Amino acid sequence: MNAITKIEDVIPLLPFIQESYAQDTHVILLDTEQVIATLPGKSIDLGIKEGLKFEDLKHTVTYRARVENRTIRDERGPEHFGVPYIATAVPIFAMKEKQEVAIGYLTAVTSTEQHHRLRTNANELATMVEELSVSTDEIAASSSSISNESSHLSTYAQDIANEISSIHEIVVFVQNIASQSNLLGLNAAIEAARAGEAGRGFGVVSDEIRKMALQSKDSAERISQQLEKLQAALYQLNDTVNHMFQNQNKHTQSVEELRLVFVKMTKLADSMIADSSFSNS
Asked: Which residue of 67, 84, 197, 227 has the fewest C-beta atoms within 10 A of its own C-beta?
């Protein structure tokens, strides 16, 4: 392929250069003084005409490429031409008097509407995932707190059940004393009957002892029945709390798995944002 010696040689190549871009592109060719050819895209048209002077292109990548004598790239939003775009200006060099000099500049302004839309969606996704992650963290914290409280409640219920067992032992002891007192009162009544008139007063006392013994035994039995019911209820409560604790642990694990999914989604959204961005140079 012959080397380019004058900038006009590039004009026939503009359609091929335009087609080489995946996105819609407006291609502009300039010599060192002005625009010499322009090929608008289907949806992106900068309105630049042939003959436009360099001085009218200040603050553009083309002007900077001329001043800095290097490739310049810049990305802009839709506020200028209705669509977001990335502009790239490349100096075209040729050998003159054994020196490489810029004979013109090729500027390609490419629509980045798809990238812009992708980036916008990725940003929205990242925001949504972040909000969901915060909510998930709060749920996880609450679940952990509930699990701890459930564990404490189970421990308290078991402690109370143990205390009831100790009280039940005391009640059994009282029942035994009542039985022994009743037997003692019965023996005393028999001896009082044998003593006849002399033992009548002692017989009255023995009857009262027997009555008190029977009353104590009855009361102890009622207390024992109530304690057994209470203990059974506490055991049931403890089983229920343990079941809740197990389910809560499963729920906490599920929330943690969901949080990890959100972390992956956040990384994916960040990657999408990075992939849809262009670095300026």
From this structure: 197
Cα distance between residue 196 and residue 181, in whole Å: 23
Please tell me whether the overall predicted TM-score, pTM, comes out greater than 0.70 for this model. no
Domain definitions of the chain by residue range = 7-114, 117-276
113-195 and 200-275 helices, crossing angle to 10°: 170
Contact 109, 26 (CB under 8 A): yes
Q: How many CA atoms lie within 13 A of 140 on its CB side?
A: 14
Closest CA to 220 of 256, 170, 281: 170
Q: Give per-residue pLDDT as tens, 254-275.
A: 777 777 776 777 777 677 666 6
